[in-house]
Amino acid sequence: MSCNTLTETQFFSLVSTIAGKHGCLLVDIDVDKRIINIAGPSESEYACAVELEEILGHYMAAPHPSEFGAIENYLGLESIAT
Predict the structure, then answer these.
(1) What are the φ and ψ backbone dihedral angles of 4, each rounded to 5 degrees?
(2) pTM of the complete model
(3) Around 15, how many Cα atoms within 13 Å sit in the side-chain half-sphere?
(4) What is the C-alpha separation between 54 and 22, in angstroms, rounded?
(5) DSSP bridge pairs for 26
(6) Which distant-in-sequence residues (6+ apart) come within 8 Å of 72 by Cβ?
(7) Torsion of CA 34, 37, 41, 44, to 10 degrees
(8) DSSP code of 32?
(9) Can you tell me the distance from the alpha carbon of 13 to that of 59, in angstroms, rounded to the nearest whole number?
(10) How many Å apart are CA 80 and CA 60, to the nearest integer?
(11) Spatial contact of 60 and 52, defined as CB atoms under 8 Å apart
């Protein structure tokens, strides 16, 4: 196994730890689509999304399927892209 990959257990643990650090609840994770749903106060969700994108970006083998990052998706900019 490459040192640049995470096991499923490590992935869930990392996501859970980051969500908890920001006071967010982990609502749902779709590993195949790389979607992590969190719930919490807006500021907490934003900080959590930023950290998740930063940390998980180091471990993702393929680029995010969207041309936008978590912050842009969080702000709803994906739906208005031209």
Answers:
(1) -105, 20
(2) 0.67
(3) 23
(4) 14
(5) 38
(6) 78
(7) -30
(8) T
(9) 14
(10) 26
(11) no
Q: Which of 55, 45, 80 is nearest to 37 (CA)?
A: 45
In this structure, what token pair is assigned to residue 43? 């500021």
Residue 78 above 60 pLDDT?
A: no
Q: Angle, to 10 degrees, between the axis of helix 42-57 and the axis of helix 8-21?
A: 150
Q: How many CB atoms lie within 10 A of CB 49?
A: 22
- Tokens standing for 60? 């993702």
Query: Which residues fall within 8 angstroms of residue 10, CB to CB, at 6 or more apart?
Result: none
pLDDT category of residue 56 using cuts at 50, 70 and 90: confident
Distance of CA 53 to the CA centre of its chain: 5
Q: According to the model, what pLDDT value does residue 61 have?
A: 53
